[in-house]
């Protein structure tokens, strides 16, 4: 079959027949390409891909993973593989790739198209991809980590609508249930913060789209906001962010086992503004990273000696 992607042992689920007709594939926003780079040599052994909004977070995660995996060069700065492009940043730590995706669905979609093609060109197999992000919690304590069982849209439906030409194509947002359970099991070894499984609501906006009263525009009352957030809670939503439905849809269609793990920066039933200090927020951001490091170490059969 032409232009197929099949990272999971179960094989192919999506195809782009045009790709095989192209002599060269330029991954413009990553500043990589099939003629300019030896992608199988650079990335063929990648087994885990972790993505998150901010370049600094993803650099810190790669440095942290180097230490956690006991790799040579741990403690030194890591090089940005996409330094020729200032759209996204990409770092490596052994079999782990750490990439930033910016904010919102358009930004993560562009990155994922190019990343998935990169993994395909590099002939990667059995890749697990995890979004490690931040979110607004719903009825949960700030600092809690939510492992997403289902990514839902702002009407609490497990679907992602992609406009393709002049059609709206509806895609499933199912995530890998076994992977979510495996992550929950790993979290039991990290007692310093609560971790739970729940639905994650993905919106197109941080302010009106997430029912905030503190944006430049707001046309609803405090009562309407709370009614909406309470209905979301009753539908099983435990946190709100801005990429999970597109992430789940694209990864699922391309055969990647995917998970979303986000820390809650606040409880949206209590307020809208993020008031925690930079130090507290930095520590919160590290919580999903610690959980994923424990998961990767376990998958690689590494035993803690410290
Ligand atoms: O913390 P990250 O992963 O960037 O993601 C969350 O933070 C951003 C909003 O502040 C949105 O992109 C949302 O999804
Ligand atoms: O409330 C929040 C916090 C982080 N990210 C979001 O998308 N929403």
UniProtKB/TrEMBL annotation:
It comes from the Eukaryota. One of its GO terms (biological process) is nucleotide catabolic process. Residues 47-297 form the Nucleoside phosphorylase domain. Phosphate binds at residues 87, 131-134. GO terms for cellular component: cytosol. Keywords: Glycosyltransferase, Transferase. It catalyses: uridine + phosphate = alpha-D-ribose 1-phosphate + uracil. The keyword Repeat does not apply. Substrate binds at residues 210, 212. InterPro entries: Nucleoside_phosphorylase_CS, Nucleoside_phosphorylase_d, Nucleoside_phosphorylase_sf, Uridine_phosphorylase_euk. One of its GO terms (molecular function) is uridine phosphorylase activity. The keyword Nucleotidyltransferase does not apply. Its EC number is 2.4.2.3. Pathway: Pyrimidine metabolism; UMP biosynthesis via salvage pathway; uracil from uridine (phosphorylase route): step 1/1. Pfam families: PNP_UDP_1 (PF01048). NCBIfam families: euk_UDPppase. Belongs to the PNP/UDP phosphorylase family. Catalyzes the reversible phosphorylytic cleavage of uridine to uracil and ribose-1-phosphate which can then be utilized as carbon and energy sources or in the rescue of pyrimidine bases for nucleotide synthesis. Shows broad substrate specificity and can also accept deoxyuridine and other analogous compounds. This is Uridine phosphorylase. It comes from Taeniopygia guttata (Zebra finch).
